[in-house]
Automatic annotation (TrEMBL):
Keywords: Cell membrane, Membrane, Transmembrane, Transmembrane helix, Transport. The chain crosses the membrane at residues 41-64, 76-99, 105-126, 138-157, 163-185, 197-217, 223-245, 266-290, 302-320, 327-348, 360-382, 403-420, 440-460. It comes from Nonomuraea corallina. The keyword Membrane applies. It is found in: Cell membrane. Pfam families: MFS_1 (PF07690). It is a multi-pass membrane protein. It comes from the Bacteria. PANTHER family: BLR6921 PROTEIN (PTHR42718:SF46), MAJOR FACILITATOR SUPERFAMILY MULTIDRUG TRANSPORTER MFSC (PTHR42718). This is MFS transporter. InterPro entries: MFS, MFS_dom, MFS_trans_sf.
Amino acid sequence: MSPTPSRTLALIVLSAASLMTILDGSIVTVAMPAIQHDLGFTPAALSWTVNAYLLPFGGLLLLAGRLGDLIGRRTMFLAGNALFTLASLLAGLSATPAMLIAARFLQGVGSAMASAVVLGILVTLFTEPGERARAIGVFSFTGAVGASLGQVLGGVLTDALSWHWIFFINLPIGLVSVALAVRVLPADRGTGLAAGADALGAALVTGGLMLGIYTVVKVEEYGWAAAHTLGLGALSLALLAGFFARQATARTPLMPLRVLRSRNVSGANLAQMLGLSAMFAFQILVALYMQKVLGYSALETGLAMLPAAVAIGGISLFLSARLNARFGARAVLVAGLVLLMAAMGWLTRVPVQASYVTDLLPVMLLIAGGGLVLPALATLGMSAARPDDAGLVSGLFNTTQQIGMALGVAVLSTMAASRTGDLLVRGVTDAAALTGGYRLAFGIAAALLLSALVVAVTVLRSPAPAADRPAPAEALNK
């Protein structure tokens, strides 16, 4: 059965909103030197143009997802989109570092509110397995495009206009998304705050996640063994442990622990955390390798990575749904992870003097495995979500995405820098030392993907056909 025009338009709205938030995660990185020059950021403070966005985005996803179930996912999506759009205007108008950091924080809050419920809305709109798989493929396509387009667009806008326009570009997208969402997204009343208004649980999980993400993004500055890292890391784990203890005893828990009893919910989130740790670090580290070792400009780097975005986007848009339907989401996930492992293995041999065609283009094509992995994980992760838990499971899925990306960048960047430092001490040239560090990081990324593959094979199960699928309450216990 073909989706109705209103549902197709709803999918476009949801995908456009996702594209906007993903774009914003990468578009700033290219413009950071211009922002520092214009606003007078110190080198240490400049990182907060990124961190001020990541902290609320990653820390509030789980809370926003549950609140979406309670007050209505459409309401949460509209409020988040509106806040993000307003914050983008403030960011573009910023004249001081403090104003920009505050606007970026508000952008992160709005992103969390909107992103947390997108998958929850999508799976309630598209209930038939085939059309749901196609919808998830389209949704994953926009994610792939946004991740790579951000770097290209950031370079073009900053060079042609000014860094202010990397934020102003969100305004037309946000305004149109809100206007259309009011018309095409189904109204849902939610179960009411009384069904899960756990204020203490909300404080524990939000504090634990935000503190944990802050600890991870500061690892490069302090190191893994520093008192700062160990102390805040331990406090973050204690807060999260307190949250889970609270959920086991609360009368109206923020996150009913039954959702984690599903093999597919827990397994897909773990596999996603491991896999995205490698994939996001790939995006960052390959870009650094091109610029610092090969001498590419920011725009050249973005264009060089476009084949990866096209390959991932094409696979997720045109093939993933058919393959999931024919072979099952788990089999497709396994195939995608194998391709990604091959890409990382290829990168462990990159030379100091590389040819793009022979040394990097094959990687950009192999990374197409991401177009199989992301839709399959979304299908598996949302397969057992009850209607009244869809926002929560969607928020959980997005939370593990953010944690995986933050951990991946922190771990792999730190290991690469350490290896580079060791090689420099031995008298190796700068380019060779940097290359050696990146090779090590790509090897670790391959190991992370292997771990995700083990989880996929041993834990995950492809969803049963609709006729054979158990009732939602039974599915969450499997």
